[in-house]
Amino acid sequence: MVTQSNLISVSNQQGGPRRFAFVLIEEFSLLSFAAALDALRIANRMSGKPLYSWTVLGESADIVFCSAGTSFRVDDGLVELKRDDTVILCGGMNIQRRTSKKLLNWVRRETRKGLSVGGLCTAAYTMAKAGLLNGRRATIHWENQDSFTEDFDEVELTKSVFIKDGKFMTTAGGTSSIDLMLKLIAEDFGEDLANAVADQLIYSSIRTDQDTQRLSVPTRIGVRHPKLSQVIQMMETNIEEPISPSLLAKYVGMSTRQLERLFRRYLNRSPKRYYMELRLQKARNLLMQTDMSVINVALACGFASPSHFSKCYRAHYQTTPYRERGSLSATSS
């Protein structure tokens, strides 16, 4: 329980509450939005002062659905904001389809006032589409990184949990919203308040923009073998031009047969099979999240022949790349 004696002393140098305008984009991530909003609420509670206020907007002043299917009634539509407001775009599933011309025009108009703009989860896509991130550093949820790189080569995409580049902020989704808000709270009112908010959230490890969003390879695969991790990292960074198992083995000082045994022992598959699964996973992400042609997806994932790509894809996913793309179009309509 927060009492008068354990409130965090802060001076409200801004003169009034800093207002955030959360824009809920259809199929937004509930966790990302709630985590950001609650950090602000707790900052007010722990300081005993209204340091922050907020409004929740939608493309229409009605109801917006999160990716879990729950509906939220917003406070207003895409209204005109004040110059000292901070815009937080809340993205989630199917962000390309949910980023409308109306939303893009509104974001561009408001940004011209000099407002700070943030994007939670996949909303970095909306910011990039609006031209806000050209020549800037940004991040986005790891599942959307492949498609983002293909669409926006003028953006310096990182794997960080969040990035703050001038007035523009992006997060990787999930609990990274907390990390961004804690940074903003610390900048506005000091580390003591940010740490108190983290304690209230039972958030014991505050991350910075130097922390990466995905687990390390050993943690992800559940195996702590340095040479195996090194090979997998090389595979993950060489999807478009795959490296042969013999070269991979040579790079880590092993024979091809030793590398085969290593993968069989720890991952129950050959290096070639594991590499193929990585390439097909990227291909599926590109098919589902971009408008790239199937041929270009095949090339981006190291397949010289579209027919070979289709054969491998069908063997792994029990459908062809063309049907995968078609099923997505049917769902979207």
Which characteristics define this entry?
Rossmann fold; Arc Repressor Mutant, subunit A; two-stranded antiparallel ribbon; 15 helices; 10 strands
Task: Indicate the topology.
Blueprint: E1 18-24, H1 30-47, E2 52-57, E3 63-65, E4 71-73, E5 86-90, H2 95-98, H3 101-111, E6 116-120, H4 124-129, E7 137-138, H5 145-151, E8 156-157, E9 162-165, E10 168-171, H6 176-189, H7 191-200, H8 217-221, H9 226-236, H10 245-251, H11 256-267, H12 271-289, H13 294-300, H14 306-317, H15 321-332
Parallel strand pairs: 1-2, 1-5, 5-6, 6-10, 7-8
Antiparallel strand pairs: 3-4, 9-10
Describe the protein's architecture and organization:
47% of the residues lie in helices and 12% in strands. It is built from 15 helices and 10 strands. The strands form 3 sheets. The chain has a 6-stranded mixed β-sheet with strand order 2-1-5-6-10-9. Helix 5 (145-151) links the parallel strand 7 and strand 8 (156-157). Helix 1 (30-47) runs parallel beside helix 6, helix 1 (30-47) packs across helix 7 and helix 6 (176-189) packs antiparallel against helix 7. The termini are far apart.
Approximately how much beta-strand content do the residues carry? 5-15%
Largest sheet: 6 strands, mixed
String of helices and strands: EHEEEEHHEHEHEEEHHHHHHHHHH
Number of helices: 15
Brief overview:
47% of the residues lie in helices and 12% in strands. With 333 residues, the chain is of the alpha/beta class.
